[in-house]
Amino acid sequence: MRSVEALVPLKLTLFGEHAVVYGEPAIAMAISEHMRVRVTESDKTTVSSSSLKIGNIKVDLSSMHIESEQAYRELSYIMETLNYFERKVPAQITIESTVDPSVGLGTSAAVIVGIVAAYSRFLGDSLSNMEIAKISRAIERKVQGIGSRMDTYTVSLGGILYFPKNSEGVERLDGNIGITGGYIRRTLSTAEILKRVKAIKDKNRQFEKIMKLIGEVVEDAREAILRHDVELLGQMMFINHGLLMSLGVTSPSLDEVVSSARTIGLQGCKMSGGGGGGSVICIKSPKAELLLESRGFRLVDSELNKNGVVIKEISN
Ligand SMILES: Nc1ncnc2c1ncn2[C@@H]1O[C@H](COP(=O)(O)OP(=O)(O)OP(=O)(O)O)[C@@H](O)[C@H]1O
Ligand SMILES: C[C@@](O)(CCO)CC(=O)[O-]
Ligand SMILES: [Mg+2]
């Protein structure tokens, strides 16, 4: 029985979330938390995923039609990714993740990248990680109607990546940042939060200024990473969080933990990802771990992943 497996790292947004959607720069890093997508030959196409909000789900996709609105919303990334492939060969697709869905760690990007990587190789194609990134970016934007290249590129390519403003480019940064990261569950998806930000931004000229300020913070953070200046990096985190709070994309629990981080003297802390709850990152320290755990955050393995998506053929 032939199988192909894709191991996809998840990501932490270090700086520039939301602003990057509007042409500002951003920085993200791939981490050791990961998603595993396995494609195995079968007589019909089924998908099973252990960590979806609708619980353990197994769907016969032969008709590629799903009645339930909620189920379709949860499976939209999978469905759109499978629809990308003109050539359909039946397969059993299993998805496992080391973290919960929709907590700011790039699981929507990882699902797409994992299926693109594993299913294309299952069909006999050999895509580069950059080709996987570009295909996946288009699919995520199609599902969400809005979004940047940051998450799909980061989980496809790995490393610490800088996304220059007003560009489709990407630059690998040479640095190894110690991060303490964790997450709490949230109710809104990133797609929903993105739509809210866009609605406000279209009406409010202040948003343009805030987005540009975030862009300046990202440039300073890039310098800090290149100079290994942890003090400056931490200051940029606090400022970036304050600007995200002014956009309305943080949450009381995120704001409280970041404010407490500053009070107890941590070097830096900020929301990470789409917001509305979800992930927080701090400059790595035992005190940061204690703070996040004391607020009920689940700590993540923030070890840098340099490889991006890795594909392997399994014949069993
Ligand atoms: N293990 C999984 N199996 C199937 N679909 C998943 C899985 N994990 C996430 N998804 C899909 O991705 C959606 C979550 O995407 P969302 O963008 O809200 O969160 P995220 O990508 O984890 O966070 P962020 O975009 O802020 O980094 C889920 O609602 C589901 O549709
Ligand atoms: C909020 C956002 O900037 C990051 C989500 O992880 C959305 C995007 O870049 O597509
Ligand atoms: Mg996402």
What would you say this structure looks like, in words?
One of its GO terms (biological process) is isopentenyl diphosphate biosynthetic process, mevalonate pathway. Homodimer. One of its GO terms (cellular component) is cytosol. Keywords: ATP-binding, Cytoplasm, Isoprene biosynthesis, Kinase, Lipid biosynthesis, Lipid metabolism, Magnesium, Nucleotide-binding, Transferase. Belongs to the GHMP kinase family. Mevalonate kinase subfamily. With 316 residues, the chain is of the alpha+beta class. The chain has 2 domains: 2-175 and 304-315, 2-Layer Sandwich (Ribosomal Protein S5, domain 2), CATH 3.30.230.10; 179-300, GHMP kinase, C-terminal domain (Alpha-Beta Plaits), CATH 3.30.70. Helices cover 41% and strands 24% of the residues. The protein has 9 helices and 12 strands. It has helices spanning 69-84, 107-122, 129-144, 150-157, 190-203, 205-226, 230-247, 252-263, 286-294; strands at 2-15, 26-41, 46-49, 57-60, 91-97, 160-163, 171-173, 179-184, 269-272, 278-283, 298-300, 310-315. The strands form 2 sheets. Strands 1, 2, 3, 4, 5, 6, 7 and 12 form an 8-stranded mixed beta sheet that branches. A 4-stranded antiparallel beta sheet has the order 9-10-8-11. α3 (129-144) runs antiparallel to α4 (150-157). The longest helix is centred in the last third of the chain and has 22 residues, at 205-226. The radius of gyration is 19 Å and the shape is globular. The model has no long low-confidence stretch (mean pLDDT 93). The structure holds adenosine-5'-triphosphate, (R)-mevalonate and magnesium ion (MG).
